[in-house]
Amino acid sequence: DIQMTQSPSSLSASVGDRVTITCRTSQSISNYLNWYQQKPGKAPKLLIYAASTLQNGVPSRFSGSGSGTDFTLTISSLQPEDFATYYCQQSYSISLITFGQGTRLEIK
Amino acid sequence: EVQLVESGGGLVKPGGSLRLSCVGSGFTFSSYNMIWVRQAPGKGLEWVSSISSSSSYLYYADSLKGRFTISRDNAKNSLYLQMNSLRAEDTAVYYCAIPYTAGEAFDIWGQGTVVTVSS
After folding, report:
1. Which 18-47 residues of chain A touch chain B by CB within 8 A?
2. Which of A7, A45, B43, B85 is 20 to 30 A away from residue A100, measured at CA?
3. 3-class SS of residue B55
């Protein structure tokens, strides 16, 4: 199984801050890494796919990078609507999809 | 509009069964692999099962130990999850999702259906 380690598990930040969330996998997954945002009571929303491709309609303050086993999600300037929980997910194989543990982003 | 709508959730006693459905619209249902993902109260996302577009390949999370069965009926634009021998730890919101425009990533999700296992 591909293990995923997402950090931090929670994060307090202010509007306008630059924030970085990391995701590490137990084996190389090339660029098969996706990032989702989830707000309470809502389904996850895809932000970034293939490690660094911005999903249509997602603001450009979101960016992703990495390949192999180490990946990052960066929000360049936090906006009020960005306070949510973020998950990484590997899609290296449809036979075993895994999510990171999640990062809860809270207002400082 | 591309849409997925889940149904079939509810309250069930431990050991009971439930069948979830996910109906797709606005896209060619038979062209897409599909997955079920669940989220227990206050917890993270957990992949449950995947099915290929033609049902040739079925995959399950190891934790399910053969209790769940995924299937689909492309003629009815429907995905199913048969859940047997339900346990309290199966209590969760269950989502279906497809990789519509974003390669292998899941960009279309249903609204979720709530399953509660309790006596």
Report:
1. 32, 34, 36, 38, 43-46
2. B85
3. coil
Q: In this predicted model, what pLDDT tens digit does every residue of B3-28 receive, in sequence order?
A: 999 999 999 999 999 999 999 999 99
Q: Which of A59, A76, A88, A96 is nearest to A16 (CA)?
A: A76
Tokens of B97: 């999702």
- φ/ψ (deg, to 5) at B89: -75, -5
- Inter-chain touch A50–B105, beta carbons under 8 Å: yes
For residues A34 and B45, is the Cβ–Cβ distance under 8 A? no
The sign of the dihedral angle between the CA atoms of A80, A90, B61, B112 is: positive
Report the distance separating Cα A18 and Cα A7, nearest Å.
15
DSSP state of A19: E
Contact A6, A22 (CB under 8 A): yes
Mark yes or no for CB contact B105/A97 under 8 Å: no
Chain-wide mean pLDDT for chain A? 96
How many Cβ contacts (< 8 angstroms) between chains A and B? 75
| Residues A62/A73, Cβ–Cβ less than 8 Å | yes
Contact B33 A49 (CB under 8 A): no
The string of pLDDT tens digits covering residues B34-63 is 999 999 999 999 999 999 999 999 999 999
